[in-house]
């Protein structure tokens, strides 16, 4: 999955499939470049394997200047 458009298509293709299909996203980082918005990366650390498993863990990575952290 190279970008947000590919992620959206991949997720649509997974609709109705088992949780196991989503585990392929584990370790994947997807860049998002929204029109008029700040760019960010979405990283999939862990994807739950079934409805009773620990919840999925995702991380949004934003450039420091986007959130007002001064560069030193």
Q: Care to give the gist of this entry?
A:
InterPro entries: ABC_N. With 72 residues, the chain is α+β, with helices and mostly antiparallel strands.
What does this molecule look like?
There is one protein chain. This protein has 72 residues and is α+β, with helices and mostly antiparallel strands. The chain has one domain (4-64). It has helices spanning 4-14, 19-22, and strands spanning 29-32, 40-46, 57-61. The chain has a three-stranded antiparallel β-sheet with strand order 1-2-3, with no helix packed on it. The longest helix is centred in the N-terminal third of the chain and has 11 residues, at 4-14. The model has no long low-confidence stretch (mean pLDDT 90).
What is the element layout, followed by pairings?
Blueprint: H1 4-14, H2 19-22, E1 29-32, E2 40-46, E3 57-61
Antiparallel strand pairs: 1-2, 2-3
Protein name: ABC transporter, ATPase, putative
Pfam families: ABC_N
InterPro entries: ABC_N (IPR046833)
